[in-house]
Write a structure and sequence with these properties.
Elements lengths: L1 E6 L2 E8 L21 E5 L9 E3 L16 E3 L7 E2 L12 E7 L5 E10 L10 E5 L5 E9 L3 E4 L4 E7 L8 E9 L12 E4 L3 E3 L4 E7 L7 E8 L17 E7 L5 E6 L8 E10 L6 E10 L3 E7 L3 E2 L4 E10 L9 E8 L5 E9 L4 E7 L7 E9 L2 E9 L7 E6 L10 E10 L7 E12 L2 E11 L5 E7 H7 L7 E8 L5 E7 L1
Parallel strand pairs: 5-7, 15-21, 23-29
Antiparallel strand pairs: 1-2, 2-4, 3-10, 6-13, 7-12, 8-11, 8-13, 9-10, 9-12, 14-16, 16-19, 17-18, 17-20, 20-21, 22-24, 24-27, 25-26, 25-28, 28-29, 30-31, 31-34, 32-33, 32-35, 35-36
C-alpha cells in the first residue's frame, strides 16, 4: 500500500507492509528470508505492535518506535554463553530486557541461539525475542521451540534483541552466544553434514550411548567434546551461563571414521534436568558443531519381585518363595543383601522372619511351613533392602476339591457326504490331571422354530481314558443338515464320585 503525506513541508512517500494472518516470516530485506523448516513450532512474524512497519525514503532508516522501555539492558561479551533469567528453569514473568552486541569497526555480529524455548504463537504475540539490525530495523521475531541452532548476522557492527514475556505461561527461555565475523559467507553451512543421536533421558551411574555420524568425506582428524551442565533452578536473575560442566568427556575422531559411538556416564546428582553440549571441531577447521540439548536425568533404580510357588495353600503346606532384584536393564541388581524378610498372617502378626539374607546374582529362595491350624485368609511376605521395600500375598484356605475344565475339540472340517465325524471331549483339573466320569452330549439343529432335530450320546471316561470320543455317522450328519447348514453340540461332564458337573459347547 502506498501512502503520501506532508511532513515539514516535504512530500514523503511511505511503503506500508501489512502482515497477513497466515504470515510465517516477514523480513525488511526480501533476500534475507529464512525458511520456516528450520524451526519446530517456531514462528517468525511481525507482531501487531509493530504492524504496519513503515520504511521511509530517508538515506538512513530510522529505528522503529517502542511503546515500552526495557526494564534492563545487558551487553554480553563476545564468546560467552548468556541466557534468559533462571535458565534452564522457567524464565521470569513480565520480562522486558534488551541485549546489545557490538563488533569492531568493519566486522559484523553473528548471534547464535543454541536453545530457544518460549510460549508458541503464530504471530509471536506473547513471549518473544525481537532482533534489531544495526540500523534499528526488525529483522526477526522468534517464539516457540527450535530443533537446531538459530543464527542471525548483522548488516554492520551492531546487533541487539529484546526478550519480552507476559505473565501467563513460561518455558525454558534461551541460551545464546555471539562472535565477530568479517563476512557473511565465511560461516560454513553444516546442514546435512552430521547426525547426532543420544538418549533424551540419562540414568545416573549408568553408561549411555552417544553416536555421531559424519557425512562429509572431506575432513581431517577432529575432537568430540561432550559436556553436561547442571544449573541450580532456584538461582534467579543469573543471565551469564558461567557454570562449569558437571561431567565431561573428550574423544578423538579420525578423518576416515564416518561413525563414532561412545559411552557417557553421569555421576549421581540431585538434579532432574540438564543440558547436554556436544562440540565437534576439526584440525583443518573444515567446519564445527556446537549443539545444546535438554536431557532428563533419572535415578538409578532396582526393581524387586517376589514369587510364590502357588497362590493358595492349606494347613501343613510348604510355602516356597523367591525374591529377585533386577536393575533398569533387567540384569541382576548390585544389591548383595536383603536386610530383613518376614511373613505376616491375616491379623498382621509376624509369624516368621529372616535377617541379612544373601543374594546370589540378585536371587534368593526361602520356604516356610504352615502349622496344622493356620489362620485362614490372606498372608503377606515382606522384605526390605536399604530403600527398597516390596511385598506379595498368598491365600491360606481349607482344602477344596480341585476344579476342572471341559474342552471340545471338533474335526477340522465336516462334509455332508463324510463317512463319519469325531469330536474329542476332555476334562482336566487345574493341576493338569484328567477327570474321570460321564459325558452327556446333545447335537441339535434348528429346522424352523419351534421344531429342531437332536441326537443324544452318553460316554464314560474310565481310569484308562483321558478323553471321550463322540462320533456322528454319515446318516446322522445328513439328518442334522437336511435343511440347515450348521448344528450345535452341548456337553455336560459329571465327575465320578462327587457328581460335580461342568459344561461346554460347540457350534459350527
Amino acid at each position: 500500500m502506498l501512502r503520501e503525506f506532508w511532513r515539514g513541508g516535504s512530500l514523503v512517500i511511505s511503503i506500508v507492509l501489512i502482515s497477513g494472518t497466515n504470515l510465517a516470516s516477514c523480513e525488511t530485506d526480501p533476500k534475507a528470508l529464512k525458511p520456516v523448516e528450520d524451526l519446530e513450532e517456531l514462528s517468525i512474524a511481525i507482531d501487531e505492535e509493530f504492524s504496519p512497519v513503515t520504511v521511509t525514503t530517508f538515506p538512513t532508516l530510522l529505528p522503529l518506535p517502542t511503546t515500552v522501555k526495557p526494564s534492563c539492558v545487558r551487553a554480553p561479551e563476545a564468546g560467552i554463553l548468556f541466557t534468559s533469567d533462571n535458565f534452564p528453569g522457567k524464565y521470569l514473568k513480565d520480562t522486558n530486557c534488551t541485549y546489545t552486541m557490538t563488533a569492531k569497526e568493519g566486522s559484523r555480529v553473528q548471534l547464535t541461539f543454541f536453545v530457544f524455548d518460549t510460549e508458541a504463537n503464530p504471530r509471536c504475540s506473547y513471549d518473544v525475542a525481537t532482533v534489531f539490525d544495526s540500523n534499528g530495523t526488525i529483522i526477526h521475531k522468534y517464539c516457540g521451540k527450535n530443533t537446531k541452532n538459530l543464527q542471525v548476522i548483522s548488516s554492520e557492527e551492531d546487533l541487539s534483541f529484546n526478550f519480552k514475556t507476559d505473565s501467563v505461561q513460561e518455558s525454558m527461555g534461551f541460551l545464546a552466544s555471539w562472535r565477530e565475523v568479517l563476512d557473511v559467507k565465511e560461516e560454513q553451512d553444516t546442514e546435512g553434514k552430521y547426525l547426532i543421536s543420544f538418549p533424551s533421558s540419562f540414568i545416573e551411574e549408568s553408561p549411555e550411548n552417544i553416536c555421531i555420524e559424519l557425512f562429509d568425506s572431506d575432513k581431517s582428524d577432529g575432537i568430540i567434546e561432550t559436556q553436561v551442565y547442571i544449573t541450580d533452578e532456584e538461582e534467579k536473575n543469573n543471565w551469564v551461563f558461567g557454570d562449569s560442566p558437571f561431567e565431561k568427556k573428550s574423544i578423538e575422531i579420525k578423518a576416515d571414521e564416518k561413525l563414532k559411538c561412545f559411552d557417557f556416564t553421569l555421576p549421581e546428582t540431585k538434579a532432574s534436568k540438564g543440558l547436554l553440549n556436544i562440540k565437534v571441531s576439526f584440525k583443518d577447521s573444515t567446519y564445527s558443531v556446537n549443539s545444546f540439548k535438554e536431557i532428563t536425568i533419572l535415578k538409578k533404580e532396582n526393581y524387586p519381585l517376589i514369587q510364590t510357588d502357588k497362590g493358595q495353600y492349606k494347613a501343613k503346606d510348604d510355602v516356597k518363595f523367591r525374591v529377585l532384584l533386577v536393575d533398569h536393564n533387567l540384569k541382576p541388581s548390585e544389591v548383595k543383601t536383603i536386610e530383613e524378610l518376614w511373613i505376616e498372617d491375616p491379623r498382621n502378626r509376624r509369624i516368621a522372619q529372616w535377617k541379612n539374607q544373601k543374594l546370589d546374582k540378585g536371587l534368593m529362595q526361602q520356604e516356610f511351613k504352615l502349622s496344622e491350624e493356620p489362620e485362614l485368609g490372606t498372608w503377606t511376605i515382606n522384605f526390605k533392602a536399604g530403600p527398597l521395600k516390596e511385598k506379595t500375598t498368598f491365600v491360606v484356605s481349607e482344602y477344596v476339591l480341585p476344579k476342572f475344565e471341559v474342552t471340545v475339540e471338533p474335526p477340522a472340517a465336516i462334509l455332508r457326504d463324510a463317512v463319519e465325524a469325531k469330536w474329542l471331549v476332555c476334562a482336566k483339573y487345574t493341576h493338569g490331571g484328567s477327570v474321570k466320569g460321564q459325558v452327556r452330549g446333545n447335537f441339535t439343529s434348528d429346522i424352523f422354530r419351534p421344531f429342531f432335530k437332536n441326537i443324544e450320546f452318553v460316554k464314560i471316561v474310565s481310569a484308562d481314558d483321558d478323553c471321550a470320543t463322540i462320533t456322528l455317522t454319515s446318516d446322522q450328519i445328513k439328518d442334522l443338515t437336511e435343511i440347515v447348514d450348521k448344528f450345535d453340540l452341548k456337553i455336560e461332564f459329571e465327575e465320578e464320585g462327587t457328581g460335580t458337573t461342568e459344561k461346554a459347547s460347540w457350534g459350527g
